[in-house]
Request: fold
Amino acid sequence: MPRMRLHATRLMVAAYAIVCATLVGLTTITVTDTRVTAQAPMPDLTVREDVLHHQWVVRDENLAASACSVQEGGITPGLRRLVRFTVMTPNIGSADINIGDPNRHIDPNGDGDFSDSDGLYEFATCHAHYHFRHYATYELVDPETDFVWRAAKRGFCMLDTDPNPAYMGQAPRSWQFRSCGGVGIPGNQGISAGWADTYRFFLAGQYFVLDGGDGQPAVPPGDYIIRITVNPPFVAAAGEPCPNVDLSGFCHQLPESDYTNNIGQVRVTIPDHPGKEGVGPLANSLVVDESELDEHGFKCAKADKK
Reply:
């Protein structure tokens, strides 16, 4: 009888813990017999495939030699055939990604010597500010051969740009992170839980060059896959920090509760001739001069204008 009572008591404790986990919501409770372990709230980044599916366009554009994406991507300026696309990366987790001021990561003790940098940022000469490293990878994939083209995008700045939709199950809250910062200019970067960081199709580098103008092979007409990986896995080079490690042993710049949901992809059709309006869901959309804009469409103070 005492053993039966003990077993019943354990079942009651386990059931109570499961109910608590359901009610709390933001904290995951793991039940192992009568021992209950609380897992700290964590961010969780993903890619909005629905946005990617509805926001892309193939068209011809004149790219200025002064555009940072042209300079950083090794692109020949002039009339280029592009496929542009929007990338939205929501934080669907239970904790914020709080990076803060990039200057504190580049020069933690403020002595002007960047040798103690934590490796999260690198200086972008054209933009004259810091870019977050390993935030996302953009790939155009040939599904028949698995050949991959790289995008012109080189720099990222994490901000609260869009609240997540209600169906994601997160309570509405105010934004916190809205400043990229610059050299000697304090910033405040991050992505709040319940918010997304969005890179819209007309912004700098939000494209693949299709005509070979960036030194890669030209992309023949046909069906392709745009694949986006947020907080991608990487193998640290010698001396490069590896802040977070997944179960497969790969490095990630940011901590997450789940590294398995970081990829979003859609199929797109590259036409032989896109015409004046372009081809795709965003055909006939406005062409914006990206040469004066930073990662989120704000005026940038480029190095050659200092």
